[in-house]
Design brief:
Length: about 240
Amino acid sequence: MENVNRAARLHALLEELRRRGDRGSSATQLAAQFGVTSRTVKRDVETLMESGSAIEGRSGPGGGYRLIGRATLPPVNFTVPQAVSIALALTAVGDAPFADDGRAALAKLLDVMDADSRARVEELSGRVWVRHGEQVEADEESGVNRRAIEQALERKCVVSLRYIDGDGAESTRAVEPHLLAHTRDRWFLIGWCRTRDAVRWFRLDRIQKATLTKVHFVPRETALFGEPPPTARSAADVS
């Protein structure tokens, strides 16, 4: 299991460096994001470099790691409108779970398109406007929290939450993440709260700290968490 988890982490680490671009990330930032030590991050980066990944390490203030060079993908045949539709979806739900991964995927797509097509995507995208509902501006800490929740959902691991409810009361919860839902212009984590031994909804912007644990759980029946309203659809229904 450890080898499988490390392989997944190496892939996620490479994707995160790709997403960060020239800004790069420090070992401390990456360690916090992936729930490991800085020493583990350094070992992982060394492994990636030995396998041929073009990663540059910079020391001193503002230093860290960044991915250099362009990534390659098998030939793809996306049209300009198809690429714009992906950009539009990401713009419309910019604070959505897995949005960072979506932006990384879009960057990969644009990277393998020819220069003329990329220019047409940029031009056409600039002529499509999206008005957002009320959103809370995300900071670096909320991004780290969201990533921990995404990983917990993907890996079926308990996540530890430091949470402030609507009355301002703070508590620490151990939660089995089962669903992510968007309603009333807010994102919610729906899960089984081991602390309260019941189903609970947690508003993502009220989560002060989310920490991925190594405690795995067996997913509970979806019906336990209720039925979505008729107007709601899962991401699996996009096609």
